Amino acid sequence: MYRISKSVSFCYGHRLLNYNGKCAHLHGHNARAVITLESVSLDACGMVEDFSVVKRLVREWLDREIDHTLLLHKDDPVLPVLQAAGERVKVTEENPTAENIARMIFDYVAGKGFPVTAVSLWETETSCASYRPEA
Ligand SMILES: [Zn+2]
Q1: Residue 32 reports pLDDT greater than 90
Q2: Which long-range contacts (CB under 8 A, 24 or more apart) does 121-126 make?
Q3: Cα–Cα distance between 6 and 129 in angstroms, integer?
Q4: How many whole angstroms from 17 Cα to the centroid of ligand 1?
């Protein structure tokens, strides 16, 4: 089995509902996503996938959906105010935790047909959440 990983950095804002801690307040993170792809065989160039292709795919989606954007739960009471003010907001069904952001990235990359097996989201230098589907 071959495995490659590509890192992409971005920043986002969020806050968590029903949470007792720092992330209950509006704030931002400089995050890094690590996208892992696996394949039992290599392409004609000897690669699982070209790193630059993975980077471009994820970068474009992040720029469009998450980078410099506030991720807020659909029930967050501050949502209407920020939307009315024209702020960049992405509404999420679940709390916008690192786990759920990793899952969002995973679902996008998988939906594009890439052999992604896991996505890790480094929310800080020392805190990382990962998503991989059950085997
Ligand atoms: Zn946070």
Answers
A1: yes
A2: 121/31, 121/32, 121/33, 121/34, 122/31, 122/32, 122/33, 122/34, 123/29, 123/31, 123/98, 124/29
A3: 16
A4: 11
pLDDT, position 23: 84
Residue 127 to residue 7: CA distance in whole angstroms: 15
State mean pLDDT over 53-67.
97
Centre of ligand 1 to C-alpha 23, Å, is 4
Could you give the C-alpha distances from 31 to 9, 17, 75, 117, in angstroms and in order?
6, 20, 24, 20
Ligand 1 centre and the CA of 48: distance in Å? 33
30, 11 Cβ separation under 8 angstroms: yes
Tens of pLDDT along 93-119?
999 999 999 999 999 999 999 999 999
User: Looking at residue 88, what is its pLDDT?
Assistant: 95
